User: What shape does this take?
Amino acid sequence: MKTTKTTNFPDLVEITADGTSIGKTVLAHRVAHLYREVGRKVIRVQIESSRRRAASEEEIVFINLEEFACAGTRNGGLVGVLSPMFESVLEARKNGAAVVVDWAGGTSGHRLEVLAATNFDATLAAMQVKALSIVMTTNSSEHMTQAEKHLHSLQKVAPQLPRALALSGRAGPFDWSVGSEQRGHLDRLLAAAGEIPILRIPLVAGRALQVCADAALDPTRALLMNFDELAARLGVHIFQSTACATEIALWWQRVGGELRKTLEATRAPVSA
Assistant: This one.
């Protein structure tokens, strides 16, 4: 793929997790804006239930999760349902854009089926498309176990697809004592991750990110607003909007630095 500015960033980034309320969509926003910061166009693809879809001021390619249920009646099955995603990759390959895919929670089984059916990793390698699959988890034992299994499955189904593990601080830090049950889950998860990049997403004090999400406001737009405008948009007073902006700015800076390291560490695909 051609880019407007030379970077080592992947051409395709997908963010996935079995659970919900982990922070995938917020991270997808941050990834997209990081690409724009380096002068590269982005095509956002979001796979989400129509019941959960929020209004957005950003142009996004939506794929309704409900269509997965009728995949058997579609030409190509699940691959047919996901045609808008594959078309976005082909379009980006022509115009030099990057693609950021935000998978809905609970779709890992469908995703693995699609990766196997399309020989996804080898196909991307043959197209010289550099990709990265980010598996995301919070510190809950259930989420960590799901992420561990998903990493193992990805290695079997798509061994050429570069992976990264995102440790989301949304539910708290990953700092348990040795010998605890939670530490055991984390140790097994890190063992499954091996030498792939680890993206550590900090915990944001307060509820700034969730408040913005409830108002269908992505963090970038929130940071660009003056405090009066932000207060009106969020339905809070100016002191709360100031505190909210401070929380978001800290998160934004720290996650941006972590993302840069992770994206630059992605290895180039090997031609099939």
Q: What stands out?
A: Confidence is low (pLDDT under 50) at residues 1-6. The longest helix spans residues 238-264. The chain is about 45% helix and 15% strand. Strands lie at 12-16, 42-48, 60-64, 98-102, 131-137, 163-168, 198-201.
